[in-house]
Design a protein that fits this description.
heterodimer; A: mainly alpha; Formate dehydrogenase/DMSO reductase fold; two-stranded antiparallel ribbon; 1% strand; globular; B: mainly alpha
């Protein structure tokens, strides 16, 4: 591999692990959003399905984020340093959300089945599931807007550490992230139950959240030219812009159509394509910048020897990881669950 | 509170909290797999119940460990961006490998916890084994990165720039073997004795409870051998510290003057201004013997270093004494248990032994906290020993006391909840009348 191509490959792998995190971890957060919004006579059963869908896999899905972070600080150390300084506040809040979501979910699964305890943990889990993706989206929006530059040596705290990320555009991306995660979750959940009434609930939620994704994406796109010129120019003006929007639009419409006609397996594929297209659209629109306005793939890259070794490690790791992940999903996701999947005897609350 | 102190405190709280869960994540799966394997081979229902309860405990603790570990990986950049900018390319390798180990661990813990009825028994035991092995591996990789901070190799540094990066040399730095061995043994000893101690305490109340007896046996099987080996590994570690971080070793031993026939100092309170240690027991030539296997060897003291390069001597010395004392207790207790076991005495039949084990429950964890205090505070004022000062690595963001207080409160609350849940879900012996007949036949017969 040529020395110059290596940083690009590593940046692609960071984007790939973010893609996987959004696809799998995102759906787990989206499940929490639907737990929060659960209503109607089947409320308790909806929450049960969501809990059982997430239970065995959320920790594995979470590791994609760790992988993205580790690859970033190994392969592009100045990027990690910059994000840590400028986005200290939203990243810290996001971490608190991650801690609360994960621990409250586990506490709910293993605490007594008293309603009060279940409600308390359930509420924390659900609220954290909503706020964490919002903050993740805000951070991504801040990077895309090109405001995460070197911190000025002087100025007020707000100027230096709040202004870069508290913008209409970042907030729009935050809302988009929540909508996307919720949409993913609703589509995935249609395949997690065999009860027709629950299937209908998740189908309806999928349709509504699909519309929300469209609206949130539209707002972000309209704000982009003024607030995020680089990404805006990429998304609106570049050569691949039109085909990209066509493909994204097609995936979105196909998902809604598949949901409408109850082709849930198809909807799962198209919604995955939709979400991946959004992630890669963002990545390509700001290429070669990792953190505009100044850190590029080439300027921020670690020495080639490090990148090469990490690439080898990733290859070896993937040889272990891919079969293991395949096994995990085959054991728990191969067949739709029974009416409401009963926990196995060794599981929580057994 | 100055920002540097707040950042260091936040890092200390985060590490001190996470390490407890990380250690349990290494030790607990082993207990769980041993119990399940015993059930599979003997059909003993108590072992099955133990495996399930320990699996529940592992699930709760692993989840908190996973999220607090995520916090740490971000905090490296949130609090120490300059450190990560320099160190990332050199020590990213163990972190990446740790990422994969953690991935495997998270996958198979899901399979294990939720797969009791979904996969064949053999596959289930293997899934548990995969959790145990990858848990140990991820600990080893993370400690490797820490070892590099203590004995940085695999790069050159000039004018704030890192050149000549060799990540393999960074991984195989001179402290890696000693530190990872010491920490892995510590994890097994601490988990084993924590579990053994709890069940020993409960056995003092209900002497014939078969549930607690079986639990105690398995926990000691893991904890005692590790505790016996730990002083040997500690000796190897101390000699490496002496060779590569002489200032840390001098602080550990409160050893102010460079001298021949250096004494080994036990206990005492360092008087840093007067450069001497009060109320200590000193073993003549002990330190020279331990470090160099030669009573006449010269041992570098703190006087060799400029005052501004001294670690906080009192904290490091006292933490080291605490670690040594606790480790010695556990090792001697393990030898006593082993000696009795060789003579086919059940530890459950000796109330004194049960008391000694019950007292040991928190000791492994306290020793680990003390040991990490020695490692981290002892490296100060450096974050990369001899090359980058902690003060130069901290983020420029002001107001760091706010996240420090926030995370401290969050972790205190989480810690309290976890302890409460473990007590309710795992430690309390099964109450069911049916179970009590199985677990304590003698008591049931009396009723």
């Amino acid at each position: 591999m040529s020395e110059s191509g290596l940083p690009g490959v590593m940046a692609g792998l960071v984007a790939l692990s973010l893609n996987a995190y959004v696809l799998f971890g995102g759906a787990d957060f989206g499940g929490g959003v639907w737990d929060l919004l659960a209503s109607g006579p089947s409320k308790a059963r909806q929450r049960e399905v969501i809990g059982h869908a997430i239970g065995p896999i959320w920790e594995a899905n979470h590791v994609w984020l760790i992988l993205a972070i580790v690859l970033t600080f190994t392969c592009f150390p100045p990027v990690f340093a910059r994000l840590g300084i400028v986005l200290h506040v939203p990243l810290t809040l996001m971490l608190i959300g991650i801690v609360l979501r994960g621990s409250a979910f586990t506490f709910r699964a293993y605490d007594d089945e008293h309603d009060a305890a279940q409600r308390r943990w359930g509420r924390i889990f659900a609220v954290a599931s909503l706020l964490t993706p919002l903050l993740l989206g805000v951070c991504i929006g801040a990077v895309a807007s090109g405001r995460v530059g070197p911190v000025p040596a002087r100025g007020s705290f707000a100027d230096r550490f709040v202004d870069p990320w508290l913008t209409p555009f970042s907030l729009a991306v935050g809302v988009l992230a929540v909508a996307v995660f919720a949409h993913l979750a609703a589509v995935f959940l249609t395949l997690e139950t065999r009860e027709p009434d629950l299937e209908d609930v998740f189908r309806r939620e999928g349709l509504w959240s699909g519309v929300t994704v469209f609206l949130a994406a539209l707002v972000a796109l309209l704000l982009a030219p003024s607030h995020a010129p680089l990404v805006g120019a990429g998304l609106l003006g570049s050569r691949w812009a039109l085909p990209f929007h066509l493909a994204t639009g097609a995936a979105a419409v196909a998902t809604l159509a598949a949901l409408w006609t109850r082709h849930y397996h198809l909807a799962r594929v198209t919604v995955g394509a939709l979400v991946s297209l959004i992630v890669w659209g963002w990545a390509f629109s700001q290429y070669p910048y990792l953190v505009p306005p100044d850190l590029t793939v080439a300027s921020a890259a670690a020495p080639a020897v490090t990148l090469r070794l990490i690439l080898i490690a990733l290859g070896l790791g993937a040889a272990l990881l891919v079969p293991s992940l395949h096994y995990l999903f085959r054991v728990f996701k191969a067949e739709p669950a029974g009416s409401v999947r009963r926990l196995p005897t060794g599981g929580p609350n057994a | 509170m100055p920002d540097l102190l707040a950042a260091r405190s936040q890092m200390a709280v985060s590490l001190g909290f996470h390490i407890l869960f990380a250690v349990v994540g290494i030790g607990m799966p082993l207990l769980m797999v041993i119990a399940e394997q015993r059930y599979r081979s003997t059909g003993d229902p108590i072992c099955l119940e133990l495996a399930k309860r320990w699996a529940k405990g592992t699930a709760i603790l692993f989840a908190v460990g996973a999220v607090s570990g995520t916090v740490l990986s971000f905090e490296l950049g949130l609090l120490w961006p300059e450190f990560m900018r320099l160190a990332g390319p050199v020590i990213g390798m163990p972190f990446s490998l740790e990422g994969f180990a953690f991935f495997i661990e998270a996958i198979f813990i899901g399979v294990y916890l939720y797969g009791w009825d979904r996969i064949p028994p053999r596959a289930h035991v293997l899934a548990g084994l995969a959790v145990a092995v990858s848990g140990a591996a991820s600990g080893i990789f993370v400690v490797t990165a820490n070892a590099w901070m203590n004995s940085p190799t695999g790069f050159e540094m000039a004018a704030g720039k890192v050149t000549g990066v060799d990540p393999i040399a960074g991984m195989l730095n001179p402290m890696t073997f000693q530190q990872t061995l010491h920490m892995t043994l510590a994890a097994y000893a601490a988990t084993g004795f924590a579990v053994a101690g709890i069940h020993a305490a409960l056995l003092l109340v209900e002497r014939h409870n078969a549930f607690h007896r079986r639990a105690l046996g398995i926990a000691l099987l893991v904890g005692a051998p590790a505790a016996v080996l730990q002083p040997l590994s500690g000796d190897v570690s101390a000699r490496a510290v002496g060779a590569w971080q002489p200032a840390k070793l001098a602080a550990m031993e409160s050893h102010f003057e460079t001298e021949r026939r250096a004494p080994f100092t036990i206990g005492g309170i360092p008087d840093v201004e007067a450069r001497r240690t009060r109320y200590a027991i000193q073993v003549p030539a002990g330190l020279s013997l331990l470090l160099h296997h030669d009573p006449d060897a010269v041992v570098t003291g703190l006087d060799h270093f400029p005052r501004r390069d001294w670690p906080p001597v009192t904290i490091v010395h006292l933490a080291f004494q605490v670690m040594i004392a606790l480790g010695t207790y556990l090792a001697l207790l393990s030898l006593w248990i082993g000696w009795r076991a060789l003579r086919r005495h059940d530890p459950c039949d000796s109330p004194w032994m049960l008391r000694a084990i019950a007292v040991a429950a928190p000791m492994g964890f306290l020793a680990i906290e003390a040991g990490w205090t020695v490692t981290e505070v002892g490296r100060q004022p450096w974050v990369i020993y001899g090359l980058l000062r902690t003060a130069d690595a901290v983020t420029p963001m002001p107001g760091l006391v706010v996240p420090f207080v926030g995370f401290t409160l969050l972790y205190c609350a989480l810690g309290a909840i976890v302890v409460w849940m473990l007590y309710r879900q795992i430690i309390r012996s099964p109450r069911h009348s049916e179970w009590s007949r199985v677990y304590s036949p003698r008591e049931a017969a009396r009723v």
